[in-house]
Automatic annotation (TrEMBL):
Task performed by this protein: Catalyzes the phosphorylation of the beta-carboxyl group of aspartic acid with ATP to yield 4-phospho-L-aspartate, which is involved in the branched biosynthetic pathway leading to the biosynthesis of amino acids threonine, isoleucine and methionine.
Keyword tags: Amino-acid biosynthesis, ATP-binding, Diaminopimelate biosynthesis, Kinase, Lysine biosynthesis, Nucleotide-binding, Transferase
Record-level Gene Ontology MF annotations: aspartate kinase activity
CDD domains recorded: AAK_AKii-LysC-BS, ACT_AK-LysC-DapG-like_2, ACT_AKii-LysC-BS-like_1
Entry keyword annotation includes Transmembrane: no
Reactions catalysed according to its record: L-aspartate + ATP = 4-phospho-L-aspartate + ADP
Organism phylogeny: Bacteria, Bacillati, Bacillota, Bacilli, Bacillales
The name this protein goes by in its record: Aspartokinase
Record-listed E.C. numbers: 2.7.2.4
Gene that encodes the chain: lysC_2
One Pfam family it belongs to: AA_kinase
Statement: the UniProt record of this protein carries the keyword ATP-binding: yes
Pathway, per record: Amino-acid biosynthesis; L-methionine biosynthesis via de novo pathway; L-homoserine from L-aspartate: step 1/3; Amino-acid biosynthesis; L-threonine biosynthesis; L-threonine from L-aspartate: step 1/5; Amino-acid biosynthesis; L-lysine biosynthesis via DAP pathway; (S)-tetrahydrodipicolinate from L-aspartate: step 1/4
Length: 405
């Protein structure tokens, strides 16, 4: 007898009819003789609706109260799914994050799981129960409810699969697997049969919202067998594993993209040994996440520095820099909004020179100016204007022959 973790996302549990469909899917897995742990998201867009309600009351609600509010979404689904399974004569029991022993660091809104106390779940499983766990939520050592960041139910599922040493973790969603790029925007996108943990980690971090990046991190660290598949169509999905075994001949496996990027430029920075560390320490102390960084020196002996951040943080970043101007020692600040980041990802890049060159060539021939560049062994990212984002994605998808032929 095996243990399978199944996770169903918002759209897959978006109505009573869909919840009944999920119950049938869970039942099928138990009929194969497996123990099953099910992780669910809030129904449909209900997390967004809760965020909307909070915004109607306050423009800056307390992060603690936001977690209290948002964690209710998943609690609705666990109870309904458990009822649906009970109705079919199956023995199911629902658990909130804290009941399931999911302990997190004390950070509201984007907490990491630090530990899972599995005793309660183990004992239910050994009594033959189907356990339904609320995704996206946990509890701190001090008993405070936390959430894991948007899309975090994937992470609950994979972390539970790792802690319970499950044989497999299936992520059921509204697409049939991981595609070469977001199929909602590019109709030529093609489903990949397998992707390596490293490629998936880059894709997820670079904006491919199909999996929460920390879920991939857990899967890689604990070697969890992960499959992304459809909750509507019974077909094989995409397997995420150590080494992608299929389609190795493709150097680039996917194109990821993300909008709402802002580029901040600091001009005339005193070019001392510590100036960069002072700037980035100050930003980090204010919880501002910096992505790409470019520095150049001027003839006058000063430095110009540009970095990219999420647009949500730009006003705060500017005020932090302005408030610390005397310590940081620069002449002027500048910011450019409405930018996007487009990235190509593939482990074949390590051994194939010229991939970045080809990317730049494709963008140039489409008249798309590049504002910033960043590379790693298996990805190249460019920051461009948001209005050019989808054009760039389509052109790169085509040039690297990723689409359906
Ligand atoms: P769920 O609610 O099931 O967690 P999400 O909306 O979080 O679903 O993730 C699924 C969505 O991810 C798809 O509808 C698709 O638009 C988007 N997506 C982005 N990039 C990709 C990709 N490379 N492959 C598949 N889906 C992608
Ligand atoms: N309900 C949460 C969200 O919408 C978590 C999730 O769906 O994974 O972000
Ligand atoms: Mg999701």
């Amino acid at each position: 007898m095996g243990l399978i973790v199944q996770k169903f996302g918002g759209t897959s549990v978006g109505s009573v009819e869909r919840i009944l469909n999920v119950a049938a899917c869970v039942k099928e897995e138990t009929e194969k003789g497996n123990n099953v742990v099910v992780v669910v998201s809030a129904m449909g867009k209900s997390t967004d609706q809760l965020v909307g309600l909070a915004k109607e009351i306050s423009s800056q609600p307390s992060k603690r109260e936001m977690d209290m509010l948002l964690s209710t979404g998943e609690q609705v689904t666990i109870a309904l799914l458990s009822m649906a399974l009970n109705q079919q004569g199956l023995d199911a029991v629902s658990y909130t994050g804290w009941q399931a022993g999911i302990v997190t660091e004390p950070i509201h809104g984007n907490a990491r799981i630090t530990k899972i106390n599995t005793e309660a779940l183990q004992s239910q499983l050994s009594n033959g129960k189907i356990v339904i766990v609320a995704g996206f939520q946990g509890i701190t050592e001090d008993g405070e409810i936390t959430t894991l960041g948007r899309g975090g139910s994937d992470t609950t599922a994979v972390a539970l699969a790792a802690a319970l040493k499950a044989d497999k973790c299936d992520i059921y969603t509204d697409v049939t697997g991981v595609f070469t790029t977001d199929p909602r925007y590019v109709k030529e996108a093609r489903k990949l049969l397998s992707v390596s943990y490293d490629e998936m980690l880059e894709l997820a971090n670079l904006g491919a919202g199909v999996l929460h990046p920390r879920a991939v991190e857990f899967a890689k660290n604990y070697q969890v067998r992960l499959e992304v598949r459809s909750s509507m169509e019974k077909i094989a999905g995409t397997v995420i594993e150590g080494e992608a075994t299929m389609e190795q001949n493709l150097v680039v496996r996917g194109v990821a993209f993300e909008d709402e990027i802002t580029k901040v430029t600091v001009l005339g920075l005193t070019n001392s040994l510590t100036s960069l560390s002072t700037i980035f320490t100050t930003l980090a102390q204010n919880q501002i996440n910096v992505d790409i960084i470019i520095q150049s020196t001027t003839e006058a002996g000063t430095a110009n520095l540009s970095f990219s951040i999420h647009t949500d943080n730009w006003l705060e970043a500017l005020s932090v820099l302005e408030n610390n101007k005397p310590v940081l020692g620069y002449e002027q600040l500048d910011a450019e909004n409405k930018l996007a980041k487009v990235s190509i990802v593939g482990s074949g890049m390590i051994s194939n020179p010229g991939v970045a060159a080809k990317m730049f060539e494709v963008l140039a021939s489409n008249n798309i100016p590049i504002k910033m560049v960043s590379t790693s062994e298996i990805k190249v990212s460019v920051v461009i204007e948001e209005k050019n984002m989808l054009k760039a994605v389509e052109a790169l998808h085509k040039a690297f022959e990723l689409g359906d032929n």
